[in-house]
Write a structure and sequence with these properties.
The protein is mainly beta and 185 residues long. It has one domain: Roll (Pnp Oxidase, Chain A), CATH 2.30.110. The chain is 11% helix and 37% strand. A seven-stranded antiparallel beta sheet has the order 3-2-6-9-10-5-4. It has a three-stranded antiparallel beta sheet with strand order 1-11-12, with no helix packed on it. A hairpin with a 5-residue loop joins strand 7 and strand 8. The longest helix is centred in the first third of the chain and has 8 residues. The radius of gyration is 17 Å and the shape is globular. It starts with 16 loop residues before the first helix and ends in an 18-residue tail after the last strand. Bound molecules: flavin mononucleotide.
Length: 185
């Protein structure tokens, strides 16, 4: 699975890493919690802003996981995972699932989906995936998932992550791009 063009972590950064992170943080994203079931049947969950769509046919999505994440070995071994797109009301879940070595699923309402991955209640959307590829992404591993099933809440505001802080969106200020996106509103 996947390709490896370079060994991770070998190239010295030629610019300031804080400045680089700050520049990257100008790109506003949503927030997702990636969930899965590990080899010992344990529930896994990680907060991710690196979620993105990749392909419509086949239906592919991606996210990238820090090589230092405690859950990485279990994520690599999982038979599938779910992407839970958080709503503005789920900031607490975003914080909880970003904490290593904690009981992340205590009091978190969920059902289970493909490969027993937890589906978090109240999410704006769920994407249930099977692993499609893992790629070297430097100090991260890029996961590409093939979407088997999805569901959409159809209401609720997204949780937005921008310049290192959570935001909501002002739904009064919206305009369609002048590019024909085939997304029904
Ligand atoms: C808003 C937000 C976005 C995050 N995005 C990512 C990400 O895209 N990739 C990543 O590896 N970690 C990301 N993190 C950090 C991870 O959530 C955190 O390191 C991880 O959940 C630790 O899990 P562990 O128990 O596997 O160590 C993010 C954290 C927050 C609060």
């Amino acid at each position: 699975m996947g390709t490896s063009a370079r060994e991770p972590g070998r190239s010295a950064m030629s610019f300031d890493s804080n400045a680089f992170r700050f520049a990257l943080s100008q790109f506003a994203t949503g927030v997702a919690v990636i969930t899965a079931r590990g080899p010992e049947d344990q529930a896994i969950g990680l907060t991710m802003s690196s979620f993105n769509s990749v392909s419509l046919d086949p239906p592919l999505v991606l996210f990238s996981v820090d090589r230092r994440a405690m859950s990485l070995p279990a994520m690599l071994a999982a038979r599938g995972y779910a992407v839970n797109i958080l709503s503005r009301a789920q900031e607490g879940l975003s914080n909880a699932f970003a904490k290593s070595l904690s009981d992340k699923f205590a009091d978190v309402e969920h059902t289970v989906g493909h490969a027993e991955a937890p589906l978090l209640h109240g999410a704006l959307a769920h994407f249930e995936c099977e692993p499609y590829a893992h790629h070297d992404g430097g100090d991260h591993v890029i996961f590409i998932g093939r979407v088997l099933r999805f569901s959409t809440a159809g209401e609720g505001e997204p949780l937005v992550f921008f310049r290192g802080k959570y935001h909501g969106v002002s739904s009064g200020d919206q305009r369609a791009p002048e590019w024909p996106l085939p997304i029904p509103s």
